[in-house]
Amino acid sequence: MKKRKFLYLFFIFLHFFIAKVAFADKKNFHLAVGGGASFYVREEYGESTFKQIAPEIVTYGYIPLYKDFWFRPGFRINYSWQQPDMPKALRIEEKDFRYSLETGILYDWIVIPSLSYSFGYIYRQTKFITQYPITYAVDDISGTENIPFSQFQLGLGFPILKGLIVFEPFIRYIIVQNDKRYKWGYGCEATFLIF
Amino acid sequence: MVQKKKVLKLFIIFTLFVFINNCTNQDKAPGPPYTAEVLQMNSMTSTQKRSDAPTFKFDKATFTWLQDLNSLNGNYFNFVFGGILKASYVSGSIVSAKSFEQSKDLNLRYNVKNGVVVPKDYSTLAMLSSYYQFDVVANNIQTMTGYSMDSIFSKYGKIRIFFEPKIILESGGSTIQSSGKLNAAYVPGAHQFIMFQRSNLENIPLAANLQVIAHEFGHSIWELAFDNGSTPNCDRLNQEYVIRGLNEGFADMNSYTLTGSTNILQNSIDFGNGGTQRNFSTITFTYDNITGGVADSSNSACEQGFYCIGTLFANALFNAQKNLGYDQTSLSGSLARGTFMTLVTNAIKTTKSNMSNLPSSNFSDYCKPSGGDSNNSIYNGLILGSFFNSFLTQIGSGATQTQICAQLKANFGSVGFPSTYRVGCT
């Protein structure tokens, strides 16, 4: 516990006394890659929700825009496979591979607030599963589809080592075509500056 | 400046994408009548035992009474998704509701293939399948009980079915959230049904199992017959341990009448011996075996509390039906399951008003279920005796009365059905 408190203090110290801005270089294009985990809060059970984890990989480009404002295009993929509660004899399992292009604006400060918008597709594999006592089942449900989606993301980056590494917790609002179960998500990612 | 314009262009392009790609693009289903792929129970064959559990199929079926697919709103039923139900108590599959707040849009997701609605996710599949079971009950309720759906509608109005709501129990100033899983329930007074949240422990989903839906509908028929369609608030008889049990037994009989199987729960949930102890055509215990607190403890012949009373009642009716020569493999016909259940339902209509010689109540708060249990075997026997006496009188003298009385006597004995209450027994 003490160790954790010390780490927090050290982290704050790094930001407020060492860094004035996140990035050492304010003029050139930068590229960063990283990964993280997002959690989708799916409205699944009437009044309750189902939290679905999706590990993800992200690539960001950083383009100086105006003063401390940066333009941040990106590419993001993630995958979710977990299933909500369903009866054993009658199930519809959905596995989603999401890929999206992203554009965002961030402000380079001792922390990095960012606002992004992504557009992409969900490649969804749907599998219909039945077992006894269901003795006959017509299966028009199983299959794959590409579903367009977009999301707005609000993040707060914590740069370390002058922006070499950025930890960024975020929240998202997701719009999936014909699928209103998805609305909010949250997560955290870590990106590493390549150049 | 150039960069600013580029950003603006990008923003406009992406905004257009949002509107173009995220607008609703749901298939339009032809109907009514609507046809959808749903879970259905296979009819029991005449060679199957009544105690066998039926099998199921997932296939297309046409809804008779559904008028609007996207809101699951029909002539007699209307689905409500989610919401918070505040209740004062839950007794078996009876919920005493105080109020209901909020609800969500159904958001059914489906494709339409050759005019048939094909669900795309589990919630949609479950809701469509659940609604279909109510449709099947509505199609057969007159044959089963003598009540037409129109007469039920005139008494209850359109019946709301709450799908996976959150249930909050409020009692004596305290509030607890019920687990709200592994059950379906009926709300007397409000005439509503509740489909509890699904669980991995279910096999066939309770909310889409015709046997379970027919059982719950049996509670609404009980209310219609026993309480003339309106269960009074804080009513002593409805809170009595054994009357709650008889209500469950009647509901089990209603399920069997429609489906032809007395094995109501085995397909949906495995809760130890519970399924076997509720399979009322094959039970071997009697009232004497479950008195002295035994019905409410584990490792007994029946450990289902007041349900055991109902199981004994249903078993007596089942055996009487068989001995009277009814065709237990047929729902309709002059001497079939439906004819017998209609006779029973008609007798229940005037049973309550003619109950006499009730003992003094052993509890005082009639606004919640009595604290009584199978320890109170003599007291419970007097309540049962009063009920059976009135019920048999309403059946009317003759072979049916004699046969039912004999079966009740065999199951409930001299404590559960004292001799002074017997009518028509030989």
Roughly how much helix do the residues of chain B carry, as a percent range? Answer: 25-40%
Overall shape of chain A: it is elongated
Give the DSSP E fraction of chain B (strand runs of 2 or more residues).
Answer: 15-25%
Structural classification of chain B: alpha/beta
The structural domain count of chain B equals: 2
Descriptive overview:
The complex is a heterodimer of chains A (195) and B (426). By secondary structure, chain A is mainly beta. Chain A has one domain (2-193): Beta Barrel (Porin). Helix content of chain A is 9%, strand content 66%. Chain A has one helix at 2-18, and strands at residues 30-45, 48-66, 69-71, 74-80, 90-107, 112-130, 134-137, 143-160, 165-176, 182-193. In chain A, strands 1, 2, 3, 4, 5, 6, 8, 9 and 10 form a nine-stranded antiparallel beta sheet that branches. In chain A, strand 2 and strand 3 (69-71) form a beta hairpin. The longest helix of chain A is centred in the first third of the chain and has 17 residues, at 2-18. The radius of gyration of chain A is 20 Å and the shape is elongated. Chain A starts with a helix and ends with a strand. In chain A, 34% of the residues are buried. By secondary structure, chain B is α/β, with parallel strands linked by helices. Chain B has two domains: 31-46 and 56-209, Elastase, domain 1 (Roll), CATH 3.10.170; 232-426, Neutral Protease, domain 2. Chain B has helices at residues 2-21, 122-145, 149-156, 210-226, 236-239, 241-259, 274-278, 307-323, 337-349, 377-395, 399-416; strands spanning 35-41, 56-62, 66-68, 73-74, 77-81, 84-91, 94-101, 110-113, 116-119, 159-163, 166-171, 174-177, 184-187, 192-195. A four-stranded mixed beta sheet of chain B has the order 5-10-14-13, covered by helices on one side. Chain B has a four-stranded mixed beta sheet with strand order 7-6-11-12, with no helix packed on it. A two-stranded antiparallel ribbon of chain B has the order 1-2. The longest helix of chain B is centred in the N-terminal third of the chain and has 24 residues, at 122-145. The mean pLDDT of chain B is 91. At the A-B interface, strand 1, strand 2, strand 5, strand 6 and strand 7 of A face helix 1, strand 2, strand 9 and helix 2 of B. Strand 7 of chain A pairs parallel with strand 2 (56-62) of chain B, so a sheet runs across the interface.
